[in-house]
Amino acid sequence: MMLLICCVLFFALLFMSVPIVLALGIPSVVWFLFSENVPFMIFAQKMFNATNSFAMMAIPFFMLAGGIMEKTDITKSILELANAAVGWIRGGIAHTVELSGILMAGLSGSSNADTSAMGVLCLEPLRRSGYSDGWANAIVVSAGSIGPIIPPSITMIIFANAVGMNVGQLFMSGVLPGVLIGVCYMVVCYVYAKKHNIPREPFKGFVNLGKTFIKAIWALLMPLIIIGGILSGVFTATESGVAAVVYGIAYGFVTKKLTVKELCVAVRDAAKASVGPVSLVAISSVFSYMLAREGIVTLVGNFGMTHIASPIVFMLFNILVCFIAGCFIDATATMLLLGPIMLPLAQAMGIPALQFACVFVLANIMGGMTPPVGTQLFVITAISKTPISSLIKPMSWFILVYLLSLVLITLIPGLSTWIPGMV
After folding, report:
1. Collapsing DSSP states into helix, strand and coil, what is residue 271?
2. Rounded to an integer, what distance in angstroms lies between the CA atom of residue 31 and that of residue 16?
3. pTM for the whole thing?
4. CA distance linking residue 180 with residue 402, whole number of Å
């Protein structure tokens, strides 16, 4: 009975647009207060244990690396390189944005940060090229969604910490899927540009491509340091975040694009931005404990083992659940609540843990693009001053190809396990 009351309270708070941390925290407090033989001290212990992790330290460092990237104009140099490489294809500016999303994914690890950075620089050029407001916004949002897929990924750090997986292995599992999804986005952009006769720009030559590459080489070194360091075993995922920050600071000061004042602002912003995900991890651990004590984990496990016999069907079922949940609940909260329940079931069915984790995390990342609570949608509409309703139709095409990519990753395990298996 108490669990039912808490669940009703949780959904009531969600529909009242109460922040997800409070929507999870208030029912948890109520359950602890009225449950017998459950010391309230466990509440604090669960929150502390969930965040007392070396891997969690990577979150503020990658947040800071993204902030430094924004203040040193790294985003602009990457956009110029992407434009020189693919700007000559039909609908070139859209391809430039998508390729920039792939390249920038190796810098910040945050979809919101990448969406914001590209939105400021790319929305107006997209409009001038003939894209409607809705499509211009949707293209930037889709490119930003690649951010947490290709390493580094704050979302993967949170999930790996929650289920006890190796962060570096999970990082590497996202490389091929991230590139695949980015290429699929570019196909959507090409079809739209072809249909609406979006003009193409002439290829400016390999000399120009070489010049923009040399100009962007210092920016591209940051993801190479992160990924190369993890692959070679020189440092862990958390230490790679520190390395990225150190490199970003050195780059900023050497090029005189970063001042001490701007660095202090970036540190402050990174600290503030880290509070949200870390708080969500802490309070989700308490909510998960409540579900486990009430037998929900066992109930879901028995249902899965009894009614879903096929591993592929189980994977597709998880994609569907995450897609629906992402429309109403913060993606990180969904991942933290369902991940520890679903991963053991996947392993019991013979599904490689790394493949399931990759598909599951990617399915939850999709929540940032789906209305009505997709955080990326709010980020881009705040920049463009356009209503979310204008994004729904164009966004549906990108969500469709994202879903198809997830199905392909489900059917071909090597897409997520090949690179980690080589490490």
Report:
1. helix
2. 20
3. 0.83
4. 9
